[in-house]
Structure to design on (383 residues):
């Protein structure tokens, strides 16, 4: 079976994890601090704060932005459900906005109809790794007093206007789940230019403690910690950070390889009528975290039939990005019309793309799509 994604993990990560285990310090400690510094510097950010997942990162971002009950947070429905859930965790109401068809991201034009006097934040997702237009969103939201939180779960190493995604954000959240380019098993990271915000995030991820566990253990004197506000256990472990440090050192190679493979897919798929592929937006480059294709309305087989053909040929593809408003967890939630979201979620699929994918495996994927289109078109012509 050709998987949709296989993390690029090896002996180096295994040795780093083993070294963390044998060091005797496995919880959040020196390796997490080192990973944070390396990540901040790689992303061109001032501060990076490691957490247990991107979901936790989004939750904390809304806490520090002081979003709470009575507030509305505009989010794309076309995203992994964690984006919308984060608003609910702080007691706010997620309001679903539609997306731009080319980038699958929110724009000021799609957010505008969702604004009310209660709108306090927008979660701007860099969907599938395609950078969203952050400057445009901040220019739109800033004068209205609306905070923009960037959900860069998929976008590590993508480039926005010449800088790494996250570098220009007030708060940006990354994921290190194995479906992402860079993995620590589970894990997440927040970046921010604000040192006070970073300090508060560090406290909040550790039960609201005013002194980290690592600092307490390093002290030769008895120290009394205090719990300044309601916090969480959103810590990353040193074992995960050890793996993350190795993964981060591979990021440039990971992205270069993905871009080569993505361009090859784009060229091969261009020969099949009715198939449109993900591509770079005009203002940046994507890391191709997920390689989606959109089937035109007149493509001869449905998206689900095509997934079936691929599965029968040993190819593990996936439906495109989910739409949260169609899930039972959001049943009955008030919403604006979401025509682009509903079209994209029904007619897109995600093809295998990972570091060690071979050209012959890619050729198999493309040939199944081409054959499915041809056979169905012929059958249609006969009937
Ligand atoms: C856009 C988006 N936001 C948030 C998340 C949640 O990330 P995590 O699994 O690290 O909590 C994901 C994960 O797929 C995602 O794609």
């Amino acid at each position: 079976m050709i998987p949709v994604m296989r993390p690029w993990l090896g002996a180096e990560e295994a040795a780093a994890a083993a070294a963390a285990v044998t060091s005797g310090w496995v919880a959040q400690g020196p390796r997490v601090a080192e990973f944070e510094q390396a990540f901040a510097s790689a992303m061109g950010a001032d501060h990076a704060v490691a957490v247990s997942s991107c979901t936790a990162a989004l939750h904390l971002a809304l806490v520090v932005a002081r979003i709470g009950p009575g507030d509305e947070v505009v989010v794309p429905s076309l995203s992994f459900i964690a984006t919308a859930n984060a608003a609910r965790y702080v007691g706010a109401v997620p309001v679903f906005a539609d997306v731009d068809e080319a980038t699958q991201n929110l724009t000021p034009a799609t957010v505008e109809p969702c604004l009310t006097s209660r709108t306090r934040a927008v979660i701007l997702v860099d969907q599938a790794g395609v950078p969203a237009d952050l400057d445009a969103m901040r220019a739109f939201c800033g004068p209205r007093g609306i905070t923009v939180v960037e959900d860069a779960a998929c976008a590590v190493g993508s480039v926005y206007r010449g800088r790494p995604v996250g570098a220009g954000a007030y708060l940006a959240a990354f994921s290190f789940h194995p479906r992402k380019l860079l993995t620590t098993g589970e894990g997440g990271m927040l970046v921010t230019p604000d040192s006070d915000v970073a300090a508060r995030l560090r406290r909040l991820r550790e039960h609201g403690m005013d002194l980290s566990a690592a600092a307490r253990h390093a002290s030769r004197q008895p120290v009394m910690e205090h719990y300044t506000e309601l916090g969480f256990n959103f810590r990353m472990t040193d074992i995960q950070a050890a793996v993350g440090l190795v993964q981060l050192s591979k990021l440039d190679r990971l992205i270069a390889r993905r871009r080569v493979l993505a361009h090859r897919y784009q060229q091969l798929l261009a020969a099949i009528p009715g198939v449109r592929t993900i591509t770079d937006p005009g203002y940046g480059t994507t890391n191709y975290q997920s390689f989606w294709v959109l089937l035109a309305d007149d493509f001869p087989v449905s998206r689900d039939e095509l997934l079936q053909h691929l599965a029968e040929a040993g190819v593990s593809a996936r439906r495109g990005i989910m739409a949260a408003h169609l899930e039972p967890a959001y049943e009955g939630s008030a919403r604006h019309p979401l025509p682009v979201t509903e079209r994209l979620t029904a007619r897109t699929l995600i093809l295998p793309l990972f570091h060690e994918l071979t050209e012959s495996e890619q050729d198999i994927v493309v040939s199944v799509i081409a054959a499915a289109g041809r056979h169905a078109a012929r059958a249609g012509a006969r009937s």
Notes: The mean pLDDT is 96. Residues 53-55, 79-80, 82-83, 125, 151, 153-154, 175, 177, 179, 188 surround pyridoxal-5'-phosphate (CB under 6 Å). The two ends are 34 Å apart (CA to CA). The longest strand covers residues 119-125.
